[in-house]
Structures are given as C-alpha cells and as structure tokens.
Design brief:
Blueprint: H1 2-14, E1 32-34, E2 37-39, E3 45-48, H2 51-54, H3 63-75, H4 86-98, E4 103-109, H5 112-127, E5 131-135, H6 144-149, E6 164-167, H7 182-200, E7 205-211, H8 226-237, E8 240-244, E9 268-271, E10 283-288, H9 289-294, H10 310-325, H11 328-350, E11 354-360, E12 363-371, E13 376-377, H12 380-392, E14 395-396, E15 398-400, E16 403-406, H13 414-431
Helix pairs in contact: 3-10, 4-10, 7-8, 11-13, 12-13
Bound molecules: pyridoxal-5'-phosphate.
Residues 53, 111-113, 116, 139-141, 211, 215-216, 244, 246-247, 272, 283 line the site of pyridoxal-5'-phosphate.
C-alpha cells in the first residue's frame, strides 16, 4: 500500500496527463500484469477488459516478447534509422507478410498518429493533390494532420493543419441518412461521400482516410458494400485510400487486418498498437508498390530519430511470431463468435439500458441509452457511475461517451469472459438503479 500511495503522490505532484484537466487526477495505480490481468503494488487484481488503450492484443507480459526485448537490449538498444539493422528488416518482412500482395515496404514511426501523418504526406506527394477526406466519427491521432483528420471533439481546439474535409460514415443505429436497413445505410452513406467528393472537386483530393472499423468512435461496423463502394469512388477519381488499422489491426477483429476478407485493397495501411501490443512505442505505414516507387529517385521528406528502433523491432518480431504460433488471432475470432457475442446479446436482453451491442473478435461496444425508444444516450453522470462501479468490482473498462467497449486482449479465456460478464451484469443492475 505504501508504494501505491507513493506512486499517487508523485503522479499528483509531477505528472501532466493526456486529455484532462489536471486538478482531479486518476488514482488507479497499476504496477504489474500478466495476460488479461493487472495488479497494483498491494496486489489488488483487475481484469483488463480495456487492453489499456485497446492495444495490448497479446496480453500483458508475454514471456517471449519480454525475452526478445531483453535480448535485443543486450545486443544493441538503439541505432540511427539510416543504418541497416537485421531486426528492422525481420519486423518489416513479417508485417508485409500479413498485408495483401503488392505491399513490400514499411515506414516505421513512433506510434499511430505519426503513421497517419506520414501516410497523408505520402498520399499528397504521390498524387500532387492536397485535400484529405475523413469521417466525423473517427480518431486518427494527436499530431498536426492526424488530429485535424480526426472527426471527434479533440480536433476542434487543434485545427492548425489545412486541406482537411469531413464527411459522415455509416452508423445505422444513429443514421444520418434516415436509413432503416444496413443496405440503405451503405448506399446512402456512399451517395453522401460521392456528393462531398464532387462538391470538393475530385482532382483536388489526395486521399480518403478511414478507420476500417471506427474504434474509439464506437466500433462502427461498416455495412455490406460500404468499403468496396469507397474504393470504387476513389478509383474513379484517382484518389488514394488510406485504411487506418491502428486499433482494428493485428488480431483485434479476429483477422490480421480488419479489411481482410472484404475484397478491398487500400493504397496505404497505417498500424501501431497491436503490432507489438505496445511493449515498446511503435507504429508505421505499409506502402503499396506504386507509392513506394514514387520515392525511388525522389527524396521522401520525412523521418524520425527512432524510426525502426531496435527494441520496438525485436518486440514486433517476437509478438507476431507468438501470435502466429499460438493461434492468438484465431482465439480472438473464436471467442468473439462463440462466447463474447452470445453473452453480450444475452446481456442486452436483460438490460433495457442497452440500446445496441455490436462488434466481432475482441472488439465490441455496448451502447447505453436513457430511453430505448428515442435512443437518447445515457447521460455522462450515469456513465461515470458505471465506470467507477466496474473498477471497484475489479474490471478495467474502456468507457467512451455513452458506451462501454468490451475489448480484452486477444488471449482472453472463456472463464475470464464469464467473470467479466457477471460484473457487467451486476453493475448495470445496481449502478443504474432509479435510472430511466
Ligand atoms: N488511429 C486510430 C484508429 C487510433 O485508435 C489511434 C489511437 O487510439 C491512433 C490512430 C493514434 O495512435 P497513437 O496514440 O499511437 O498516436
């Protein structure tokens, strides 16, 4: 308990936190972890159904990834990006091994924001065009172009980059298009994007940047035909398609990439998070051959001191090898289809406050409403009570707006899911008493 108190005191005194006013800091101390569980110094246990920021896909402290980082640290902890390094080549080879054919190169960044930043830069230089289209319901990171591409509220105090245009993507539960079926939603969302492209001037648009499945915005599953329709619109006008797989990629959906099986081939893919489960900060852009060729003889005007950092590279190699040999992506797919999905459907039947559950793999959202008929979102105060009650019951939740995202590591077991469901059930019953 002494260490937990010391950690809180130091944090309160000296640490400046993301996305928050600083006066009321979090008091949740995490000191260690294993698989889908984490502990404070005093040994209080939490089931991690957030995967932190939806990035710890392989679970906490996977032994072979920890070992690979240790071994690389003994050999060489850092090296300039201009050098040739074996770990970097091995990491890039494994990443493109999961991409469609026609992708052979990877540019490594420090995380997801700068992955999108550099993908946008490549798209602009490759096309000679300026504008980037992205959706209002999106999060693409917190640097210059990435935060202005972002649609949610975090863009608004940060609009210093130019050339960004936003549109509405499909979201049937709160349709912007008066749609009542997934087919209608898909068709009308595409018609809306077609009109935005025409009105902006197709030849001024470098890229459409999309999260394959918008994550933080609510795990918004694209309806049938939507991604293919966006690809078609891009092709018609020489616009590049950048798919942001930072949150959805590397196992989260039960597939290596969320777009796998959709028949859609992007021009650039951005990744981070699940590629090494965040054991060392890293992200990157997977570049299709024609765009890579643009920079064969032309200087690419971008770089980072830590591009392809050896500790990150070693952790990618070990993480992807373990995910493959241990069937971790398959586990995410199976447990999503046979355990999490059915359990959430049952939960929704028991609680009127659940307006919708949606998702796949280990990527699910519970959308909470004050009134199922009007779909009015559950107010922030009630969401706050739910969040506190979940933590008090030993479950780390991912709470965003009026939603609980059920996003455990890909290695989660059926027993852990059952424990979590019992906690969600109990907390929804008790914390919402007197509500709605
Ligand atoms: N893109 C998506 C879809 C994300 O979910 C995130 C982070 O949550 C980012 C980009 C930004 O990644 P990072 O925080 O590593 O910069």
């Amino acid at each position: 308990d002494g260490l937990d108190e010391l950690a809180r005191e130091l944090d309160r005194e000296h640490v400046f936190h993301s996305w928050s006013a600083q006066a009321n800091p979090s008091t949740l101390v995490i000191a260690s972890g294993r698989g889908s569980r984490v502990w404070d110094h005093a040994g209080h246990e939490y089931l991690d159904f957030s995967s932190q920021l939806v990035n710890v896909n392989i679970g906490h402290q996977h032994p072979s990834v920890v070992q690979a980082i240790r071994e690389q640290a003994e050999l060489l902890t850092t090296i300039a990006p201009s050098t040739v390094n074996l770990a970097r080549g091995e990491a890039a080879k494994r990443i493109v091994g999961h991409a469609p054919s026609g992708f052979r190169k990877v540019f490594f960044t420090n995380g997801g924001a700068d992955a999108n930043e550099n993908a946008i830069r490549m798209a602009r230089l490759h096309t000679g065009r300026d504008k980037v289209l992205s959706t209002y319901r999106s999060y693409h990171g917190n640097t210059g172009a990435a935060i202005v591409s972002t649609g949610d509220w975090r863009r608004i105090p940060n609009e210093f980059a130019r050339g960004h245009v936003h549109f509405f993507g499909p979201y049937l539960y709160r349709s912007e298009f008066w749609a009542t079926t997934p087919e209608q939603e898909s068709e009308r969302a595409l018609q809306h994007l077609r009109r935005v492209i025409e009105a902006e001037g197709p030849s001024s648009i470098a890229a459409v940047l999309l999260e394959t499945i918008p994550g933080t915005a609510g795990i918004l599953m694209p309806p049938p035909g939507y991604l293919a329709g966006v690809r078609e619109l891009c092709d018609r006008h020489g616009i590049l398609l950048i798919l942001d797989e930072v949150m959805a990629g590397f196992g989260r959906t039960g597939r290596w990439f969320a777009f796998d099986g959709s028949g859609v081939r992007p021009d650039l893919i951005t990744f981070a998070k699940g590629v090494n489960s965040g054991y060392v900060p890293v992200g990157g852009v997977i570049i299709s051959d024609p765009i890579a060729a643009t920079f064969d003889d032309r200087v690419f005007p971008g770089g980072l001191t830590y591009s392809g950092h050896p500790l990150a590279m070693a952790s990618i190699v070990a993480a992807l090898d373990a995910m493959e040999s241990e069937g971790i992506v398959e586990n995410a797919r199976e447990i999503g289809a046979t355990v999490i999905g059915p359990a959430l459907a049952e939960l929704a039947e028991r609680h009127a406050a659940i307006g919708e559950v949606r998702g796949e793999g280990v990527f699910w959202a519970i959308e909470l409403v004050a009134d199922p008929a009007t779909r009015e979102p559950l107010p922030a105060a009630a969401m706050g009570r739910l969040k506190s009650a979940l933590v008090a019951r030993g479950l780390l939740p991912f709470v965003q707006d009026n939603r609980i995202h059920v996003v455990p590591p890909c290695v989660v077991t059926a027993d852990e899911v059952a424990d979590a469901m019992a906690i969600y059930d109990d907390v929804l019953r008790t914390a919402l008493e007197g509500e709605g």
